[in-house]
Design brief:
Helix content is 76%, strand content 0%. Helix 2 (41-53) runs antiparallel to helix 6. It has helices spanning 2-33, 41-53, 55-58, 62-78, 80-92, 98-112, 120-133, 137-143. It has eight helices and no strands. The chain starts with a helix and ends in a 9-residue tail after the last helix. The chain is mainly alpha-helical and 152 residues long. The longest helix has 32 residues, at 2-33.
């Protein structure tokens, strides 16, 4: 009996942590995708690819992720500054989790470069996301193999 309760508690904690991480990742996706004010098909497709290929994301509920992403994109389009503030808060909750923060910045980078055209606004968003996570944008960009001419 005692072990069953412990298993349930562990499962609930894992679910809560995953839910928080899922929301933070989807906030990064929405912010990175809309950094240039367009949510291109190539960026949406890249998000789907990322979920299929990144080990850290495979345990998350993909269908729920898509619903959250759509909600965040809608919020950014209808309440830009207010929605950004809320989404940055979700991202910042991962600042003390280095592995998750790195995963999130990998996601941001892949979305930003998905259409082979990196804009100033996308670089600015990359910097802001790094700032929210307490990371050095220049170092993260280099570590991810970013074009040195576009270093944030």
């Amino acid at each position: 009996m005692q072990q069953t309760l412990m298993d349930k508690l562990v499962a609930e904690v894992r679910h809560y942590r995953n839910k928080e991480f899922l929301k933070a990742v989807m906030a990064v996706c929405a912010l990175a995708a809309l950094a240039d004010e367009e949510f291109k098909l190539s960026e949406r497709y890249k998000i789907f690819q990322i979920f299929a290929s990144q080990e850290a994301l495979k345990e998350l509920d993909f269908n729920k992720a898509v619903r959250i992403l759509d909600d965040y994109v809608h919020a950014l389009r209808t309440d830009g500054a207010g929605a950004k503030t809320v989404l940055y808060q979700k991202v910042a909750r991962m600042a003390d989790k280095p592995k998750r923060a790195r995963t999130m910045m990998r996601v941001a980078y892949m979305i930003i470069v998905a259409d082979d055209e990196v804009t100033e606004s996308e670089i600015a968003e990359f910097k802001q996301l790094c700032h929210q996570l307490g990371l050095a944008p220049e170092q993260v960009w280099r570590d991810l193999g970013g074009n040195p001419r576009l270093t944030p």
